[in-house]
Amino acid sequence: MGKPxxxxxxxxxxxxxxxxIDEQHRGVLASINSLxxxxxxxxxxxxxxxxxxxxxxxxxxxxxxEEGILRDAGYGEIEQFIKxxxxxxxxxxxxxxxxxxxxxxxxxxxxxxxxxxxxxxDHKNFTVYLND
Length: 132
Hints:
The chain is mostly helical. Helix content is 75%, strand content 0%. It has one domain (19-130): Four Helix Bundle (Hemerythrin (Met), subunit A). The protein has four helices and no strands. It starts with 19 loop residues before the first helix and ends with a helix.
């Protein structure tokens, strides 16, 4: 059947017990893994579009949640955070267009894997503000 999960939750991803960010991170991973599951089942890109839209919505409201927490905590790089979040959404939409153009949903999974790695790296800069 193939690998059951594309990205697995690890304790090292945790921001703090019971934190909304952890719950949203788990939701992001769950939606990415759903996309992967449907891909493994042989669904074409058109059948994956509803799941791809869910992933987009998760990325957007997760960024808004982090933005609100960081803004309230006085994070000094909030404008850069907002700019990066907008760039991530634009890049994801472009990956969706590429996946449709090439009829290859792997564009989405590769983008999301790379986004997740970058997002975790970014957290090293602002996790202290999320938990403040």
